[in-house]
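Why does residue order matter? Because the sequence determines the fold. Keep that principle in mind as you read this record.
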Amino acid sequence: MNNKKSTLRIQETDQPAAAIAAMSGGNYGAWDALTRIFKHGEDIDPELRNNAMLPIQALDAFGIYGTDIYVLYNDICQRDLPKTLAVIKAASLQIFSSDVLKDACSRQDYSGRELVPVFDLYDKIRYRFPNFNNK
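Structure:
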């Protein structure tokens, strides 16, 4: 991960708006998804109460930016924020390969859906973290 540090787009000291702008790369769909993650993430994942930027920082560490973020949220997770957060969390915890996730997100022809077992990952996160999306 130290090799990736020099290519990160955001720093821990960045304000959320600046980080979201850097990560979205001018793609409105990515900006919308990241804004939703930041604003509503802690309602879904109580562990984000102290760091709402954690999923966004994870995407940065994975090298997933711009249109690829939109593909994750819109195409792969079908605009379902809890499932999007579960997939990011699963990759962060190495329950699912972040490299496979990055590959899936780079596919704009919906073929990435076949690579990411969204429902299975959601169920695994819910099992491991009973308070995840428990409302």
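The longest helix spans residues 28-44.
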